[in-house]
Amino acid sequence: MQVPDDLSYTPQHEWVRITNGVARIGITDYAQDALGDVVFVGVPAVGTQVTADQSFTEVESTKSVSDIYAPVNGTVSLVNTDLATQPELLNKDPYGAGWICEIRIDGSTPALLDAAAYRALVGA
User: Fold this and answer.
1) Where in the chain are the domains?
2) Which pairs from 67-71 meet CB under 8 Å and 24+ separation?
3) Does domain 8-122 match CATH 1.20.1260.10?
4) Which of 88, 99, 115, 118 is a Cys-bridge partner for 5, taking CB atoms 3.0 to 4.6 Å apart?
């Protein structure tokens, strides 16, 4: 299981890369493995307001449907449109081509886990 050191994480298994006040997010390798084959990704609309720790979209797999939680407060500023036709990108490349969206951060960033804390959470 991959847990890149240069990312932050949530206890709900999202990863976060913050650059210049924008958070790019996706699901972790642990999450995609637990889900199994992803068949649908609900990509939020650009302009959607999100609240940290609140569900704002979902991912469907052959096993279940899972909520995706916002790691920060803000506004969706960019979405990965490739996921509409290639939801399997979440399985194949969760930290690269499988990103879900970018959120322009509004206010302060909630406490996120570093890679070591996330590894401890998932027993890696």
Assistant:
1) 8-122
2) 67/12, 68/14, 68/25, 68/27, 68/42, 68/100, 69/10, 69/12, 69/14, 70/25, 70/103, 71/8, 71/10, 71/14, 71/16, 71/23, 71/25, 71/103, 71/110, 71/112
3) no
4) 115
